[in-house]
Every structure is written in C-alpha cells, then in structure tokens.
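FORM 7B: Structural annotation worksheet

SECTION A. Query
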Amino acid sequence: MTVTPLVPNPAPDDTLDIPLAPAPAMRDETFGSALLQALDGAGAALARADRAEQSFVHGSGGLQEMVVERAQADVALAIAGATASRTAQALSTILGMQV
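SECTION B. Predicted structure
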C-alpha cells in the first residue's frame, strides 16, 4: 500500500507569505522488504560468527571475539524466530476474521 502525502496547491496569484515545504521523500520500504533485510542481517551475523570460530580454531582469533560473535548471532536468530512466529500468528488471526 502506498500513501502519498497531501500537499496544498499554491495560490494562483502566489500571494502566500509562507513557502510550502517539499513533501517528505517516500521510502519504498514494505513489511516484506524490512523482513528480508532483517533476515539478511541475521545471516550476516551467522557468517561473522562462523568466521570468528574458524579464526579461533586456526589460532588467529581470540576466544572473546568468538563468544561475542556467537552471542550476537544467537540473539539475531532468536529475534528472527520470534518475528516469524508473531507474523504467522497475526496472519492466522487476520485470515480467521469474518468479513
């Protein structure tokens, strides 16, 4: 759904003392694109955690960095799981409504 902002038309004789502000830029961000960005972020966190673990295994990385990256990836996955669950619950509720 796209909502366009309402901007008044200027007076034909341009007697307005107050200049009209330009309409705010509309972002093309839908729920689906926001969800995709969040999932991409979770995937990136998992990739960083995997690289940190591989670095630790090969002796070039530290234990603390590995633990922090894994914790961040776990939080991102928990948020993604909760979001998917809530989205499915909301969709089920909407589809169960009588019209």
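SECTION C. Observations
Residues 10 and 16 are 7 Å apart (CA to CA). The helical segments are 31-57, 63-95.

SECTION D. Sign-off
Analyst initials: ____
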